[in-house]
Amino acid sequence: MADAPRYKRILLKVSGEALMGGGEFGLDDATVSRIAEEVKAVRAMGVEVCLVIGGGNIYRGLAGASHGMDRTAADYMGMLATVINCLALQNALERLGVHTRVQSAITMVRVCEPYIRRRALRHLEKGRVVIFAAGTGNPFFTTDTAAALRASEMECDALMKGTKVDGVYDADPMKVPGARRFERLSYRDVLTRDLGVMDQAAISLAKDNHIPILVFSIVEPGALAAAVRGDGKFTVVDDGN
């Protein structure tokens, strides 16, 4: 069947910056709604979906630390920024009729559930979308690492990373005409070369758990569904098997 999904369960990693649309800060409602439509389309294919969202559109811990703030405090502020983004996407999904739960690694029971692995798995089995907030709940770890960790815990078949371009290039294609896009890379390739896929902790987690990473354009409508089917433009990072 041509439209059959290649994966049964995926984790989608979206940066906070992807939620800004054409703005320089905060949330763009139209962009958040469009990403929610993308997720809904994949759910309609029968794919179980969970997400990790960054917080860089609101606050970035490393930026705060670079200006003299205590790194731990700055990272916790960044984690709280991700919660805002997760609640915004939950609202957009539920407006579309997609049942969604937000689980936070930092307990805040008035606004979302605490992260409990078995409960998250049950939500996925019931067809709900689960959004994981507050990163790993620990400072000094990125939301990329949180995405690889949750993908491993949720036993996902793939980790989908939405970016502004349709894969991994040997240079920034927005700045370098003729930059070469890779169709496939090994975990070793991205661990030993500065290709900007994810941080090394995230790549190592994916490698250890044999979870392929698909890098695609979150900006292009329909690109997520195409990547899940395996017929779009994207780069696969895997162990080559």
Q: Which SSEs are present, and which pair or pack?
A:
Layout: E1 9-14, H1 29-44, E2 48-53, H2 61-66, H3 71-95, E3 100-104, E4 113-114, H4 117-125, E5 129-133, H5 143-153, E6 158-163, E7 168-169, E8 181-182, E9 184-186, H6 187-192, H7 200-208, E10 213-217, H8 223-229, E11 235-238
Parallel strand pairs: 1-2, 1-6, 2-5, 3-4, 3-5, 6-10, 9-11
Antiparallel strand pairs: 7-8, 10-11
Protein name: Uridylate kinase
Domain Aspartate/glutamate/uridylate kinase: 8-217
Organism: Tistlia consotensis USBA 355
Molecular structure report:
The protein contains eight helices and eleven strands. With 241 residues, the protein is an alpha/beta fold. It has one domain: Acetylglutamate kinase-like (Carbamate kinase). Strands 4-3-5-2-1-6-10-11-9 form a nine-stranded mixed beta sheet, sandwiched between helices. Strands 7-8 form a two-stranded antiparallel sheet. β1 (9-14), α1 (29-44) and β2 form a beta-alpha-beta unit. The mean pLDDT is 93.
